[in-house]
Amino acid sequence: MHTCAYASAISEVLMVTKFGSSQPPFRREDRRFVTGAGRYADDVSVPGQCFAAFVRSVHAHGNIRSISVEDAAAMPGILGVFTGADLRTAQVGFIPYLPIPGFKMGTPAPSPRPGLAFEKVRYVGEPVAIVVAETLEQAISAAEAVVVEIDALPAASDIRAAVAPGAPTIWDGTEGNVALSWDSDDPAQIDAVFASAAHVVRLQLRNNRVVSNPIEPRASLAAFDPIEDCYSLTAASQGVQFFLRVLCEHTFGVPREKMHVRTYDVGGAFGMKEQPYPEDIALLFAARRLGRPVKWSGTRNEHFLSDNHARDAIIDCALALDENLKFLALRADILDSVGAYCSCHAAHISIRNTTNGLPLVYQTPVVHSRVKLVMTNAAPIGPYRGAGREQAAYIVERLVDQAARELGVDPIDLRLRNLIRPEALPYRTPSGRTYDSGEFEVVLKKALDLSDWAGFDERARTSGKRGRIRGRGVSCFLECVGGIPFEGAFLRFTEDNKLSVVLATQSSGQGHETSFAQIAAARLGIPFESVEVSEGDSFDVPRGLASVASRSTIMAGSAIAVGCDLIIEKGRKCAAQLLEASEQDVRFADGTFTVAGTDLKMGLFEIANSLRKGTSTSSGLPDSLDTTGDFEVDDLHFPNGCHICEIEIDPETGLIELDRYCAIDDVGTVINPTIVQGQVHGGIAQGVGQALMEHCRYDDEGQLITATFLDYAMPRAAHLPPFAVDFHPTPSTKNPLGVKGTGEVGVTGALPAVSNAVADALARVGVTQVLDMPFTAEKIWRALR
User: Fold this and answer.
1) 467-498: b or e for each residue (b if 16 or more CB lie within 10 Å)?
2) Which residues does 483 contact at the CB level (< 8 Å), separation at least 6?
3) 342-362: pLDDT as tens digits
4) Could you tell me where the DSSP H helices lie in 238-311?
5) Would residue 392 count as lying in a domain?
6) What is the DSSP string of 145-201?
7) Which one of 136, 195, 677, 685 has the lowest number of neighbouring Cβ atoms within 10 Å?
8) Does the pLDDT of residue 423 top 70, yes or no?
9) Residue 209 sits in a domain of what CATH number?
């Protein structure tokens, strides 16, 4: 297969998606998005609202000596200026660290994150005061008049600087700025394996700090109703239930019915909008004090400065092999930054998510991980697409390729020699996870065919004639996703013959309104158009958490399926009474109950309407078919795949061009191929961005020097080739839909695939230096010289 054949493969994949047996409907939500009818947090306004602006620290570390607000408070239109001291006086709480159930890792040293900094600042951009005015312009002008006196302290924004001897202490109680040290097991066993191994390969890797950059910056509208004694918050979130948990249980100490959180459309999140932020706390406080709704619309610069960043780790890792090149042991020692505050789920990103995924799809008897969570004078770290799973893939796949180079063996043969075989499933890993399904060798071989692996040498010669260096990289990965053990769904029949599905998850671009409607429609045999999906209102939401960790379809989709099955059983009992038949004679198909051997039948909506109107004389019938579906799971799910990419390097400039990219993913049952392909495409783009250009950087004083798009590079369409994406589904056994999770496979596969391609290209011209991401043109140019 040559270049034209590769293009043909892409076309075949797209044709299957468009015209295949699944016939996926177009995303129903797209019409309002592309016509400007979407409703985002910044689009929401209410009568009487006023506007907020924040005063932020210009120092990375320091003691707050004073905050002078008098001049600002006297300016025209100013309604109030509040500081951390005001929040403390009102006993407003903090954003806490929140453990994830089912994973024992200890508790990090306390670093409660306040709504407004009090006594001390710990990163540039940390909010120290909120100014509220009649107009936004007045609030911004007054914010500039607030005088903050800070006694600056030495800062340590880099991981190495933070753990170096004599580094400034960021939090009391964190010796050497380490909030938590964690070991997966006694290292003595793995030491013995490495000591006796025939071959040992070692690497030091850097998982570079990045910014999530959703298209929609955060915006919030807070209000307080004194009559009902109830707060309300409109914000971009990934699920209102998690916002309620933080705000009610930890920050304001109020019952959940006294906090109304609403989320409408969300323009991208990627993990960054999982939690409430200090600004949300300050806005809610100000709204109560002033008796007015208070609105804040964050700028892109504020997003760079104070929203959660991601990644940022230094990794020392090693792989031990025997004389037959079988993997014996894997070791990873990780210094993982959590930034200035270790809040919500930050601590779990590296410890739980990275170590759960080791050793991916390879039979490796012994695995040892050691993680240190390091406090730094930088914006806090939070979940971001992959959320540590990409780090596991990066570690293992970089080591496998490095082993192939050092030992002079084919990287594909080395992988095939060590892949977990289908007959070994269910397979319990040394990390304690049990893989229930997967065909890892088949996935790899399909990817090789799709990428035309055999035609690489010819393409490399063609590149060489044009003065380019071609390299290729492969990534066989697996993710552990879908945890957090429960999710619910309300299923209600409406008077206009519709089924309303209410969920606690939240779409931020994934197409929930389409794919969840498909699940209910297929399960009940009713028209797709008759299903309406709603999310984002905490006053009407089932139990659940949020759309994180590739869990939405696994958990909420399964809750819908469970609820639909309950509706069918309830409907069968009702149909039997209404049709005066034996329940065992009632059949259900295509939305209709029929009595075997007769022409008696009733449709699902017909029964629902009959129950609602109370027109039946039958006794013992329920009031409605409305049902709550609940789904719980006690283990994770394991999407996996193989991604292959080819790059070209211009040795005169160091510029890298991504020339070809293909992916075979096993995400279990595919509900909507178009949506799933879009998820994979988006993830690949983010992985490519981190590998080749994205890097969030601070200087030695802790000043953010990549605080705008002038300084922080992002991938554009021109940086990406057409993707050849296909699937090899092996259904999961752990949920009724057989799905495994899709949202993060693109980035998890891309990061090691692109990195391995760069290393391969450089090795072909004799460069053995291990470079850190991002692989910028300057780095490549210098390495080649």
Assistant:
1) ebbbbbbbbbbbbbbbbbebbbbbbbbeeeeb
2) 100, 102, 549, 551, 636
3) 989 888 888 989 999 999 999
4) 240-246, 278-290, 300-306
5) no
6) H-EEEEEE-----SHHHHHSTTPPPSSTT-GGGEEEEEESS-THHHHHHHHH-SEEE
7) 195
8) yes
9) 3.90.1170.50
